[in-house]
Give the backbone structure.
Amino acid sequence: MTAAGDAPAYLVTPKPPIVQDELAHIGAGLRFARSPTGFLAELRAEYGDTFLVDVFGYKLFCVFSPAGLCSLYAAEERDASFGMATFDMLGFKTPIEVMLDADIALFYELLQPPRVAAGLHTIAEGIAEVLEDWKQLDTLDVFDAVRTLQQRVGFRLWIGPEAARDGEWQAFKACFDVLSQENAFVSPQQTLETLMSNKAAEKQAVSEFTQRLGAIVEQRDAAGAWPDDNLSFLHARFRSETPEATLRKLAHNVINANQGFLSNLYAALGWTLVNLQSHPDSLRRLHAELDSTRARYGEQFYTSQTALDSMPFCEQLLMESVRFAQRSLTLRKVMREMAFTVEDQVYTLAPGVYIATMLSVTNVDSPELARFDPDHYVGRRINPALIGKGRETVSTFGHGTHACPAQKFSHNMCKVLLAQLYAHFQLGAPAVLAAPSDTQMGGVARPAEPVRLAIRAR
């Protein structure tokens, strides 16, 4: 046996436990790619809560102890960068020019509570349109159907009603199916094809998307009609010295907004549906909450933020579904020498190493956490008894300054979808036990195999 990590040991001092493998770099990488969660869980059992492993040349300083996780989430961006780690991961898939035009602050602006609440009518209209199409179905391929639903709602919300029209949304969907960032972590083996082609298909999709978005901009300009929607907001925000520069920045940031919207939420919604149909008691409790909310706020209660905020059980369902299916490889790229504390040691980390943890290793790290139960949460907050070792030991939407800003939006989307879906359809239970994909190394799990439910319009 050779120590795969011996060469980069200087990146972490004092020397931590270093993962050994038969083939330096590649051996660990291949085992990691086959089952990231399983591999890291095995390494944790063998090497402890803190160790260094080389995965295809990426030096991962892995932490799983309560103190190590606390230090990870508390790290300053200038020391250990979430942004640069994300750039490195998604850079395999996304054309660099799209990422260079990204305005990170935009996500936080689009997800401000007043703007999120204002989008409820648009979301409800988009979902209602898709559910009309579902009335023709007798079987629902849950994750594929919810992904398409979310794409169509996203086009209406982040681009405009023009992009949601029949014939147009299919063309926009084709672009985003090629650009989908989830392939960078759900199916990492596809990354090789992308790299070998120099992102040819992705660049063509960006070009096609930009042309279609440009046509909508031209139509609005010609009509002198810029409604009060997100596209008008973004167009004004990215207005530049030339129409060409304006369109480029607008297109790249609309792509980024849609990518952020699509990356994990549809899988979270899919698992929520599957869990509801697999647990009759949870389904009864949801129906009771929907009925009481409808009685108090009216048939269109799902367009009222106040009404949605009064639905804690739906929040518990989503939080527990995300916790169970979470597969995020949480990374921070060390940008300058920094001290990093675990229980009994302070390490010095050099630039270039990645601080890492895998949420699926710790999220089910007890007999109680290993079972599905929405009452593990009270609304969006986990029962404190389950995180006695530290709040960072269980994660859904993240912790600290880089916690996902879309939590409110995600809960809204879930509540609006469930309210409309169960008002108009009856669903069956899964024929087989649904399981997450073993190969996924980021985000909310996609299923190992398609999950189908019987569906019947009421």
